Amino acid sequence: MSLPPPTIVFDLDGTLVDTAGDLVAALNHVLAGEGVGPLALADAVKMVGNGARAMLRTALTESGRPPATTDLDRMTADFLAWYLDHIAVHSRPFPGATAALDRFAEAGWRLAVCTNKFERAARLLLDQLGLSERFAAISGQDTFAAMKPDPLHLLETVKAAGGSQSRAIMVGDSNVDADTARNASIPSVLVTFGYSPVPVDTLGGDRMIDHYDQLFDAARELIHA
Q1: Which of 49, 54, 63, 173 makes an SS bond possible with 15, Cβ 3.0 to 4.6 Å?
Q2: 62 Cβ partners below 8 Å, 6+ apart?
Q3: What is the CB-side half-sphere exposure of residue 164 using CA atoms within 13 A?
Q4: What does each C-alpha distance from 141 to 53, 76, 198 come to in angstroms?
């Protein structure tokens, strides 16, 4: 019997696309409305990974103004509305990412995205970057009944792409991605150029890469291991 084609699942922010400029602009837009000064890119980018709501909660708490739930609901809606209107002003695929997607597609791999962005935002960003049609599945924090690091998010993404858990790889940049892959018993490749606030080599990924030129060989090694 022939093996099913392998599946490679990408995190989005800080892994596939450098979205920091647009995310931090949206964050600072909301903070300004709350009378809080803007955060520097280098400080705010460390808050990326768990979605807009968590990003806002962390930023406000660190500024000494932990938000009430109702205020956080309102601010999250404001963040998303502004962000959707400015989603690809600065955001671009990381160097080599598009060529890597082409290489996996040519080799018969299934491609998917598993992100803690809302699905609508993820699809809009990938649409505007001309990448959406490359993926068999695109899932966000609201697509299934759970979000990363819950393994259900990744497992259901693999299934939606027509893939198999035993023939899947997760690519990410943070502890959220490493933990998700580990919880799902799926090998992970972590990129060193993303938004992790701690050294990537401390996160327990199965492979690390410094550039997308290295991804195909790393993923193929893990699939054949």
Answers
A1: 173
A2: none
A3: 7
A4: 11, 14, 23
